[in-house]
Amino acid sequence: MTSTDVRTEAEDSGPSGYAAARLRLLQEGARSGPPRRAALAELTDDWLTGLFDAGAEGLRGVSLIAVGGYGRGELSPRSDLDLLLLHDGSADPDAVAALADRIWYPVWDLGLALDHSVRTPAEARKTAGEDLKVQLGLLDARHLAGDLGLTAGLRTSVLADWRNQAPKRLPELQELCAERAERQGELQYLLEPDLKEARGGLRDATALRAVAASWLADAPREGLADARKRILDVRDALHLATGRATDRLSLQEQDQVAAELGLLDADTLLRQVYEAARVISYASDVTWREVGRVLKSRAVRPRLRAMLGGGKPAPDRSPLAEGVVEQDGEVVLARAARPDRDPVLPLRAAAAAAQSGLPLSLHAVRRMAAAARPLPTPWPAEAREQLVTLLGSGRPTVEVWEALEAEGLITQLLPDWERVRCRPQRNAVHIWTVDRHLIETAVQASELTRRVGRPDLLLVSALLHDIGKGWPGDHSVAGEIIARDVAARIGFDRTDVATLAALVRHHLLLVETATRRDLEDPATVRSVAEAVGSQGTLELLHALTEADALATGPAAWSSWRASLVADLVKRVSAVLAGDDPEEPETAAPTAEQERLAIEAFRTGSPVLSLRAQTEPPAEDPSGEPEPLGVELLIAVPDQPGVLPAVAGVLAMHRLTVRTAELRALDLPDSVQDSEESSASEGSVLLLDWRVAAEYGSLPQAARLRADLVRALDGSLDIAGRLAEREAAYPRRRGIIAPPPRVTVASVGSRRATVIEVRAHDAPGLLHRIGQALEDADVRVRSAHVSTLGANAVDAFYVTGPEEAPLPGEEAASVARALEETLRE
């Protein structure tokens, strides 16, 4: 059926005909994108025109106008209809009201969202002057029916008002855009973005149209229309997939939207959305900067003319580097610059801009992108130095890098960048796409350059550490190969290339080992020392670890993690200096531990103490101490089920476990003989745990102890209580978590078998693991708990009844049984 046939059906059959024709149009698989939006707008135009004509017979000086998105002739499947019934005031008010009802009610009867108003031209202009959103909608006013001259007059007046008031209204519009971006975030980084309201979305595209209509400034047009079209196409598919008027691209709808658009998967969908949003965001940055420059120039120029006796003063141009100058608050190319003969110019200009904290001129970037010659391989020393200077410039690096990337200069310099550009990271811990995370890591690393002997290697490793995420398999392994190639290409010598490759390969080594392994185990420290190889690499890796975590998101770094990594670095440094750690003897119990153990033996029940742990800030030992959590010491007569009981009680009280160490303490005969104990044996279990309150304050030690007593004697149903709590807070719809995975770690330990658990974090997870290990008849010596976002990665050092590591097959059997339990 053609568009003409659909319109004829709508006209012949009234509202029901329009509804059928609309449904038929939306179900046409062969038509999508701008053609479908235009056809839907045209179909709606004809229907509304028919409603207007039927009700306006005999009325003069009245017109029906589409505004906003409908005014632009774009209708998504569930878009609102924005309508203005305009009248010149000469018609009978009751007749105008009756006409409005003849139009509005059929729209409502079909369940379509309607934004409507009835105004005279004067009222419309007055409302627009008071409400910026109304004025923006009227800028796209389009005549539908009635008095064409009335509509044209309003359009002319509104445009004239907008242009006359632009110096006042554009700053107001910019402020609205900034407030919206603060609330909604940046579309190009969000996993569940609002396609309309987030920065770089459809609202910003509309704002750029309004700026252009002011004649005060204009947005960079290259790619802007395509970017806006792409987001509109995604919104259309979202409306069809959900059947709702929503702009939120939720996780659970992304696969269906991708399929609707014929895309490979949800990641491909997000990457296209991010690329489009990046174009709009960059155009917004350039446009608002130009608006500010023009408004400032208008304010200053009359005074200058008066002082200079007329004429236009020449702009000041301050040199920044060879071929690069500052003009009007931007970095531009010098008149003598020759980008076609100077391949280092893009990096030199970028470094100069970042170092001075100024934006790169759009014209300069485009001129360099059009004329730039490829750098020779390997790069000349100046190019490498300018790259390092750019990366070490701190926060201004981000804006400058985005300007280069918008015109394709980054992929010209670093072709491997294309695979990580706009690549989403489906991990709640990460707040950036892969490429932005790499730049953020360089920004964080720039603040740590005074801690290392080779700041250039730190900054380049920060830029490259996740470069392998664009390839299949372990991104650290793939990244090592890419880093070798890139480092050689940009001119590092063989030794430095090897160091950079090692940093990329092992960029997760320190934090994963520190949070998931027993640092008292010499085998752990030796394995890290062997991987690192030298003190210089260890120093760089320590700084890279911190920069990477800080650039990931708030959940990835803390005082606790920092202290664990620093402890590991100290131990590894000692091994690299020649110290060979011996198997440590079991440390004698502290006075506090011994006191608790004796009391537990004497009473035959658990006793405990809570004590806050702090340490001075790393950069300022004399400053205020930072909390590392709370030390929870528990002593309980040796008996089965201690680990799951303690873990369950802590989960009930919303305490997060960070580390857990368990040891059996045999009390001296003199103590046993002198105490009348209800315990049958002289062995007491000591549990030394670090915990933190999930939120709120810590529970009282007495309450913890009372619940622990009940858990150990079986009168407290921990599993039932945790299940009740989980049922009271239904899970939010979203992606389905992957199944848990339990493995036996390959890193050896002479004292225990290391079982690693990766699972979706949930209340009582440690309790379930402890119970499963208890059922497997293995003893947990220590637990190292790490939670990143919704993912728990826990390592358990376990032994058999004889306090020895488990044989290989037995260890694998325990791991399989634990995994099966967690999958239930």
UniProtKB/TrEMBL annotation:
UniProt keyword list: Hydrolase, Magnesium, Multifunctional enzyme, Nucleotidyltransferase, Repeat, Transferase
Residues annotated as domain ACT: 631-723, 754-824
Activity regulation details: Uridylyltransferase (UTase) activity is inhibited by glutamine, while glutamine activates uridylyl-removing (UR) activity.
CDD domains: ACT_ACR-UUR-like_2, HDc
Segments traversing the membrane: none
InterPro entries: ACT-like_dom_sf, ACT_dom, HD/PDEase_dom, HD_domain, NT_sf, PII_UdlTrfase/GS_AdlTrfase, Polymerase_NTP_transf_dom, UTase/UR
Domain of life: Bacteria
Pfam families from the UniProt entry: ACT, GlnD_UR_UTase, HD, NTP_transf_2
Enzyme Commission number(s): 2.7.7.59, 3.1.4.-
Region Uridylyltransferase, annotated ranges: 1-319
Reaction(s) this enzyme catalyzes, per UniProt: [protein-PII]-uridylyl-L-tyrosine + H2O = [protein-PII]-L-tyrosine + UMP + H(+); [protein-PII]-L-tyrosine + UTP = [protein-PII]-uridylyl-L-tyrosine + diphosphate
Names of required cofactors: Mg(2+)
Molecular function terms from GO: [protein-PII] uridylyltransferase activity
Domain HD: 434-557
NCBIfam families in alphabetical order: PRK03381.1, UTase_glnD
HAMAP family: PII_uridylyl_transf
PANTHER family for the chain: BIFUNCTIONAL URIDYLYLTRANSFERASE/URIDYLYL-REMOVING ENZYME, BIFUNCTIONAL URIDYLYLTRANSFERASE_URIDYLYL-REMOVING ENZYME
Family per record: Belongs to the GlnD family.
Record note on domains: Has four distinct domains: an N-terminal nucleotidyltransferase (NT) domain responsible for UTase activity, a central HD domain that encodes UR activity, and two C-terminal ACT domains that seem to have a role in glutamine sensing.
Task performed by this protein: Modifies, by uridylylation and deuridylylation, the PII regulatory proteins (GlnB and homologs), in response to the nitrogen status of the cell that GlnD senses through the glutamine level. Under low glutamine levels, catalyzes the conversion of the PII proteins and UTP to PII-UMP and PPi, while under higher glutamine levels, GlnD hydrolyzes PII-UMP to PII and UMP (deuridylylation). Thus, controls uridylylation state and activity of the PII proteins, and plays an important role in the regulation of nitrogen metabolism.
Record's protein name: Bifunctional uridylyltransferase/uridylyl-removing enzyme
Source species: Streptomyces xiangluensis
